[in-house]
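Protocol step 6 of 9: fold each sequence in the batch and record its structure tokens directly after the sequence line. For illustration, a two-sequence batch is reproduced in full.

Sequence one:
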Amino acid sequence: MYQLKDVKVIREQRTILGIEQLNIDPHALTVVLGHNGSGKSTLVNLLANQFQPEQGTVTLADKTLQQYSAKALAQTVAYLPQKLPEVAGLNVAELVRLGRFPWRGTLGRWRKEDEQIIADAVAETGVTQFKDTLADQLSGGERQRTWVAMLLAQQAELLILDEPTSALDIQHQYQLMDLLSRLNKTTGKGVIVILHDLNLALRYATQIVALKAGKVAFHGDVSLLQDEQRLSDLYATPVTLIDHPHRPHKVAIVC
């Protein structure tokens, strides 16, 4: 279980994130929601140990993140930032291969199982046909899927993704979320993902963390989203829920 207690992140002499108590199921597909500036990226950066809070503790499996070695944490948590790093000169297969670094290191001996893990990750994300293509020549959707393939090759127990759908067209947004949902259901890997699209959350989430002005507005089962007033308060705009014409979940529209 991820646990945050009495956490504060302070920037420019003001608190931009303040959480008294928050538990996150590391086996769920948890969507982090909230308006721009609500603290979503700050939260997932804390969970991925990209920096430490000025106050409070973040623990995973009853250990603070600082108690994990860099290698042990990378074997447990795989993190994809909002802005993807530059990978000039690397093709898709080489980029995905980087996911094995926490297990083999720079000089570690590679095994057949490593190559199979890489091949499986490339196939699972549908980028096999691009394995010899330079990563920086891919379209936005193809590049995003390649980075997810690298996360899969890392074989961490938990995937954390910061707004992975923000630069994708609608088709690729749903393809990516289909993939993450399938991975969560079939492998038991936990997924924590920031989304801006409320309808993606309604369709795919099993758990929700909603932030407003740097604080937790609500969190828990996705059923919490079945409340128009709660959603309207979160986004400070009237939200109406209607039945999806073909699926057993609601669709949110702005009135």
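Sequence two, same batch, same settings:
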Amino acid sequence: MSTAVDRSDYVSDVAQFRQDFRQYLRRLDCADAWRTASFRTAEEGLAHDATVMARLNADGWNRYGWPEQVGGLGGNEIHRAVLYEELGQAMLPIPAQAWTLEVIAPSVLKFAPHLAERYIPNYLNGSEWWAQGFSEPESGSDLASLRTRAVLDGDEFVVNGQKIWTSQGATAKRLIVLVRTGTPESRHRGLSMLLIDTDSPGLTIRPIELASGRRELAEVFLDDVRVPRERLLGEVGGGWAVTMFLMQFERGMYGYASLQKVLMELGRLREFMVTVAAPQSLRERFARVYVEVITAQARAAANVRRLAAGEAVGPASSIDKLLCSEAERAAHDLILDAAREYMMVGAPAGADPAELDTARAEWWYSRAATVMGGTAEVQRGIIADHILGLPKEKRG
């Protein structure tokens, strides 16, 4: 076992943390198995990634960047960013659970520390993961119009409604669910946030099979689901504040980590292009996409530093969401075009069919990059209104 759990100096010395974690990955007995792992289903992939989380947690490494009360060893967002950077540099995929952890856990820590202390240690060690219950069939990017309703009955909320496009929802242990506790006319002022267990009576999850065949999303039905009041994040009617706080991490930490994954995939693509002697046009396109990705990541890195300093990111995060999603789509389009014969026709004899299935699934999932978490059009509207101060768009 690594001595990382005994190194209190890592909290103040990030460079030493980076150096020792890099050496740890070089010596790790299961690194090659992690590096080459591929699966035919989303469920199998998440199960494998849970074992990665468990190992990193047992050896202490993914506990840095989190406070002690939730099973961490101290430090901040910089430590977590370094962990993702070094995994990418070692060509080791970031566990899928880390995406939702980075988005959800900071909000639970801030608005419901009693819940964070109870449950986030299990998130860090891979024994459970959560999902966001935000979007609804008629309420996607406009969350202020959502209709899933929660009514307080004594010490419990009774929740009724439907959520859709819930990432990792088919396997999640818990959901953070944005619900309406005010009138429909109250818009964002009438929303509240609840943490709901997926095995609660009245809660039904139906996986959604994507074009890739993988069930990476789900729809959630809530029929008289009773949720203890202690599962409230923040205040009744304070759900919008929780959401805005959460969005900073979605645009900052999640965006930075996801771009690190894209850089890792571009590294693999570069090796492939050298092997097959890719034409000049593709090499030039690779360079343009690479610059696009590192530009988006540089902006995301600035947000990581702001979050680590306790500063609010604000509406400028919409720029990062736009750059990140467009860079991600451009990278996966390049991968498809550079390896078109492999992607379209199939793997050569002796190759792992699960690897091809994973590559195809990644391309299909990238189609949603400019939609999920707020569409590109919505982000441009926020930039126009709140940053550039442009005149409001006239609607007929």
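Proceed to step 7 once all outputs are recorded. Observation for sequence two: The first strand starts at residue 130 and ends at 133.
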